[in-house]
Amino acid sequence: MDQAAKKQAVAAAAIEEIRGQFVSGAIIGVGTGSTANAFIDLLAQHKQHFDAAVASSKATADRLGGHGIRVLDLNDAGTLAVYVDGADEADPDLNLIKGGGGALTREKIVAAASERFVCIVDDSKCVGTLGAFPLPLEVLPMARELVMGALRDLGGAPQVRSGFTTDNGNLIIDTARLDLRDPPAAERQLNDLVGVVCNGLFALRPADALLVAGSSGVAHYVKNDQ
Ligand code: 5RP
Question: For tag attachment on the chain, is the N or C end more exposed, with fewer CB atoms within 10 Å?
């Protein structure tokens, strides 16, 4: 099974996972990226069974809207029962690196506003320790050099993502070689850097469920404390 087929399989598993949300009045949080896109395309088949969605990016809002799914501003939606999104890396504690698509800030906001975060990945995203994937950080343009210096001081190898502007008008700095062995501590430390809007570690609010597509099917993992 190739990676595209795995993304399709895990998107289908996510539909089963959230089937309980297909009720009148339900609002579903939807992530960004190719795996989330596969989920959106399947979600469209159930659009008459829920009320609306909240999108984590303009691209996702456009895709949802293209399917005729009503898209709400988060401020008008309140707490969401569930958020479904992909990831760039996932560890055994369901900590994640996200932001490969540059939507990490809105993704973290929608995840924070959701009671349950269902993360959907193919097995290439599963790692023992986070950090092989360079960590994306969203940074205010005027703070670029300040933040690059601070990331180098932490041992990182930061690189501005060329030709990319986030939905919020900011830069992405992808940073390899950071020590992410304690993901919640690293997330807090990076949050403290002046000029950083958001970092792509999802450890303070990790996934609640992780669905992983491999060659022999989709495996389900839940947080240890649930
Ligand atoms: C976007 C993200 C995506 O979830 C992540 O990059 C995974 O993308 P894909 O499903 O295309 O592999 O965090 O900001």
Answer: C
Selecting among 89, 107, 138, 187, the annotated active-site residue is 107
- Give the torsion sign (CA, 40, 80, 164, 212): negative
The per-residue b/e assignment along 127-148, b for 16 or more CB within 10 angstroms, e otherwise, is: beebbebbbbbbbbeebbeebb
For residue 103, give the ligand 1 atom closest to its CA: 14
CB contact at 8 A, 111 and 91: no
The closest residue, in CA terms, to atom 7 on ligand 1 is 87
- 142 alpha carbon to ligand 1 midpoint, in Å? 26
pLDDT interval class at 226 (50, 70, 90): low
Residue 225: pLDDT over 80? no
pLDDT-derived band at 169 (thresholds 50, 70, 90) equals: very high
Q: What percent of the chain has pLDDT over 70?
A: 99
Rounded distance from Cα 181 to ligand 1 centre (Å): 21
For the chain, what is the mean pLDDT? 97
d(CA 75, CA 62): 18
Q: Does residue 34's CB lie within 6 angstroms of at least one atom of ligand 1? A: yes
145 is catalytic: no
State whether the beta carbon of 136 lies less than 6 angstroms from ligand 1.
Answer: no
Judge if the beta carbon of residue 101 lies within 6 A of ligand 1.
yes
- Spatial contact of 84 and 120, defined as CB atoms under 8 Å apart: yes
